[in-house]
Design brief:
Elements lengths: L1 E8 L4 H17 L3 E8 L5 E9 L3 H10 L1 H4 L3 E9 L5
Antiparallel strand pairs: 1-3, 1-4, 2-3
Length: 90
């Protein structure tokens, strides 16, 4: 199943994102579940969240991925949603 992980950063947490970005990117690259990933941007073009498309067996696997993310462990996120998703185009 595909799952969209949509995470919003805590306000003023850009430094937390920057400091933990190398570990986060390494985590994404090491996971066979990640199909697409990239930052959300605010009106000024600054990173303010994340969108990750996962291909996992079930929601429990998506939750485990979320729980292991260095960004989440560093306390970057204000909220994280895991939503079942179906690709229609692309």
């Amino acid at each position: 199943m595909r799952v969209a992980l949509i995470a919003r950063d805590k306000p003023g947490a850009l430094s937390v994102r920057t400091e933990n970005r190398p570990a986060h990117v390494a985590y994404l690259k090491a996971s066979p579940a990640v199909e697409r990933a990239g930052p959300l941007l605010d009106d000024a073009g600054e990173m303010c969240g994340s969108l990750i498309i996962l291909n996992v067996d079930d929601m429990t696997a998506a939750q485990a991925f979320r729980d292991g993310d260095p960004y989440g462990r560093a306390g970057l996120f204000d909220s994280v949603e895991l939503i079942a998703w179906t690709q229609v185009i692309g």
